[in-house]
Amino acid sequence: xxxxxxxxxxxxxxxxxxxxxxxxxxxxxxxxGALERYRIHVFGEETRRAYDRVHLSEYLNGRDAESMAMxxxxxxxxxxxxxxxxxxxxxxxxxxxxxVTASGRTAYDKLVLATxxxxxxxxxxxxxxxxxLVYRTIDDLDLIREAARGARRGVxxxxxxxxxxxxxALKSLNLEAHVVEFAPRLMPVQLDEAGGAALxxxxxxxxxGVHLSRATQDIKPGTQYRYRMRFAEGAxxxxxxxxxxxxIRPQVFLARKAGLAxxxxxxxxxxxxCRTSDDQIxxxxxxxxxxxxxxxxxxxxxxxxxxxxxxxxxxxxxPFTGADMSTKLKLLGxxxxxxGDAHGATPGSRSYRFIxxxxxxxxxxxxxxxxxxxxxxxLVGDNSYYDxxxxxxxxxxxxxxxxxxxxxxxxxxxxLLGVDALPAAATICSCHNVNKGxxxxxxxxxxxxxxxxxxxxxxxxxxxxxAGLLKQVVEHELASRGVAVDKSLCEHFAYTRQELxxxxxxxxxxxxxxxxxxxxxxxxxxxxxxxxxxxxxxSCWNRPIQDPHLVPLxxxxxxxxxxxxxxxxxxxxxRMPAGEVTPDGLIAxxxxxxxxxxxxxxxxxxxxxxxxxQLHELPSIWSELIAAGFETGHAYGKSTRxxxxxxxxxxxxxxxxxxxxxxxxxxxxxxxxxxxxxxxFAVSGCTRECAEAQxxxxxxxxxxxxxxLYVCGNGGMRPRHAELFATDLDDATLIRYIDRLLMFYIRTxxxxxxxxxxxxxxxxxxxxxxxxxxxxxxxxAAELEAQMQLVVDRYECEWANAISDPEKLKRFRxxxxxxxxxxxIQFVQERGQPRPAPARAAARVIPIAEEIA
Length: 853
Description:
Layout: E1 11-16, H1 20-31, E2 38-44, E3 81-85, E4 89-93, E5 98-101, E6 104-107, E7 110-113, E8 117-119, E9 133-134, H2 138-148, E10 153-157, H3 161-172, E11 176-180, H4 193-205, E12 209-211, E13 216-221, E14 227-231, E15 237-239, E16 241-244, E17 248-250, H5 253-257, E18 268-270, E19 281-283, E20 288-290, H6 298-312, E21 327-331, E22 334-340, E23 350-356, E24 361-367, E25 374-380, H7 386-395, E26 427-429, E27 434-435, H8 436-444, H9 450-457, H10 467-480, H11 497-507, H12 512-519, H13 529-541, H14 556-560, E28 563-564, E29 570-572, H15 583-595, E30 599-602, E31 608-613, H16 618-627, E32 640-645, H17 659-670, E33 679-684, E34 698-703, E35 706-711, E36 723-729, H18 731-748, H19 755-761, H20 765-773, H21 781-793, H22 798-803, H23 806-809, E37 827-830, E38 833-836, H24 848-852
Parallel strand pairs: 1-2, 1-7, 2-3, 7-19, 9-16, 10-11, 10-16, 11-12, 18-20, 32-33, 33-34
Antiparallel strand pairs: 4-5, 5-6, 8-17, 13-14, 14-15, 21-22, 22-25, 23-24, 24-25, 26-27, 28-29, 29-31, 30-31, 34-35, 35-36, 37-38
Domain Nitrite/sulphite reductase 4Fe-4S: 637-764
Domain FAD/NAD(P)-binding: 13-292
Domain Nitrite/Sulfite reductase ferredoxin-like: 565-627
């Protein structure tokens, strides 16, 4: 027995690596009672504990690093667990069974290598500094963010999964993004030629340059941009920064130095139980190679972690026999799915393909020679088929007599595979290896809702790709056991939002109190039902948000018709339809900003935002803006926000239609329209797409023959590309289709559900929506148009409504017994404008009024 076990009966277990897989291994060890056997030491190179690398791009979209941490910090605070962050292991002394760090030596009885991988950067002359960035860790993203300051263009070398994620990151930093790929197609591992072509078309339509079959020779100083990339073939490309995402390599430095056996193609060689050539050492995740293969997804790493945890706790599980590399992703807002034998490499296999060149969508189904097994699939543009096809492939379910029906448009397709048809062994969550049987056991054990099943099984807590399927299984299993699946809005209303909307419409109900008395429970409502019902009432009847029966239902922004900022002041956004404004209008806005000492910022939606107004100042600011011809921009509500526009055929030599006039018509028609979530529109005057219409809830792009209509897109943390809905529409038909679609969305969407999420939840998908809106399959067209016309006819500016009513004006006071502002709100000057003073320095800051004086 070595020194690690002489002091007591506990052995010492060392885990090298605190990434997602290393963390999962520790979780599994503790859950299996490992602390009764081992003292656990975990060494991590980074200064942060394990975080979610699957959603790494969200960090650049505003998500903070702490929120991305895996599990609770308390996991590593238990007695018997020691976490060494920022302390890389420098060597493994196998003879002494010790790991060596800069701080000293730690003896071990068992050792787990979870060192992961590192990004491969090809040896290219001139690649250094900001021309040699990588996309792997939070620190890497901080470097990319810093390099993007003042830059205009960024290039990603590598068109695989991470490369496209990196390109999305560059776009989120407001850079012109380009992708350079050595292979002749994007995502060459997951997609076939046609799938790669469809993905390329989709990504190029988002404004990302794609350069295929390009081998970078060297990087030199540029003329228009900082760097100039030269290729073996093709024109050079200039850029301000370069991010390499050209694949990963297993991190085997320690293993090689320690003399462990390595696989021929890289990685620490492991057996079916994840043991290395040293029986006391295991390897898991991307640093490990099983049968010569390295697995670059998190699910196989988690599977290895579970196997090792079970081995170390004396309860071996089934050995590792490879992993399903199927994956479902949304890259730059584009759905991409790859299942099993996506390339049809199985001898004798047959393929069925569906190609939609107009919509840049592609689906391929690979079946066995006898047509009795689904072997694989490729999806680009629509992942609604993914869960069904994955279950056919994983569980050996015989496809229909005509397998092609599995990938046809929903109206022509075979019925979706119901969750009742899935066997108990069907894998629902591959990250945590949760099958349908485990979910059923959790329900039989007392879990009566989705949250309970998630907590019990950890399903859908990894990459999250199985969340939709998990919800279906849970609801089906609960219903089959006679448990009512409660879809109530809240404790006060035993209805869904859709049902409440119908009740309000049919009953002509115009107040929360009336609805609660006739169809609810209790007397006051709650924070869930009040704003939901307020939105329904506003959508149905378009009464001013300041009406007495609506005010109690609103949040702060709607109540005061301005967005509250972090220092307690408000921002004011006057409507500027289509971004058009006269010189006099600009002067008026400037005069208001100067008078009230407001910070001025042009928004991404072609509006001017005025920050720093105190509550008591709002009516006066509105009055002056209204006098200058402006009205509320509804920036505070779940309503129509902006209609972005290019200059169109009036000025632009490429424009084919008057996009400004159409944007004006659309904004004036739908201004004030209340919806389950905010609505954004855009109109582009040609296919060059300067208004970015294909990332909006409603996007309109001019053609020689009229307008193309795109629907249900959005930006934000989870971008979604809008889908082509109809082509070459005349003005009247375009407006008619938008009327119908928006009112159908308002009628059927869930609370706080964006159009993109609503569209993805619709049974029948886009084809069903086309049938309802274009073909009037439900016979609702006239009713939906009439509802929209009622909303349009009843519009009035909410600012004007408020300042004309002395009773409503009483609400706009900071203090009940004073008419002035809050003396604790202070500002400092920055770049010639006021900004909130840092809270910690407030006592030392001179109020801006004194400073300006």
